[in-house]
Amino acid sequence: MITVEQARRLRKAGALWVPGAGDRFVVPDRDMDDDVFVVSDMTVEVHDYPGGKVIGFNGTTEWALDSIEQREVIWMPREDQLRALLGSHFERLEAVPGGYAVVLTDGRYPAEDAEQAYAKALLALLNG
């Protein structure tokens, strides 16, 4: 999984998120950075309101959070989502000593985890 810091950098660099079922996110700066939530039609849903998207927590009784605005959470993209964002720049994923490397048309981005390698590659692409 990518780190929260990588996810913050991706958002700052312009990676756009349209929340959907199966998407992972964290609620930062509320002593919950280590808790990864998943959008689900059963417990966490995305609601469209005139003021923007709101992520609703349905049926949660263990803590008092009914909903939170999308801009207040940090998306933790999965490997397939990162690969899709790379688009035609992506050539391949390679196993390398100590991890993986994502190879783009203009460079190679190694990391200890495949998702982290994809995130590094996407950051390089977005920050061009």
User: Going across the major beta sheet, what is the strand order?
Assistant: 2-1-6
N-to-C span? 23 Å
Rounded Rg? 16 Å
Strand content: 25-35%
Number of strands: 9
Kindly give the count of domains.
2
Low-confidence stretches: none
Tell the overall outline.
elongated
Mean pLDDT across the residues is 90
**What class do helices, strands and sheet pairing give?**
alpha+beta
What does this structure look like?
The protein has 128 residues and is an alpha+beta fold. The protein folds into two domains: 18-75, no CATH class; 79-127, no CATH class. Helices cover 25% and strands 32% of the residues. It has three helices and nine strands. Strands 2-1-6 form a three-stranded antiparallel sheet, covered by helices on one side. A hairpin with a 2-residue loop joins strand 8 (99-104) and strand 9 (107-111). Helix 1 runs parallel beside helix 3 (114-127) and helix 2 (79-86) runs parallel beside helix 3 (114-127).
Summarize the structure.
The protein is of the alpha+beta class and 128 residues long. The protein has helices at 4-13, 79-86, 114-127, and strands at residues 24-26, 36-38, 44-49, 52-57, 67-69, 74-75, 90-96, 99-104, 107-111.
Topology diagram in text:
Blueprint: H1 4-13, E1 24-26, E2 36-38, E3 44-49, E4 52-57, E5 67-69, E6 74-75, H2 79-86, E7 90-96, E8 99-104, E9 107-111, H3 114-127
Antiparallel strand pairs: 1-2, 1-6, 3-4, 4-5, 7-8, 8-9
Helix pairs in contact: 1-3, 2-3
Keywords:
elongated, 128 residues, alpha+beta, three-stranded antiparallel sheet, 2 domains
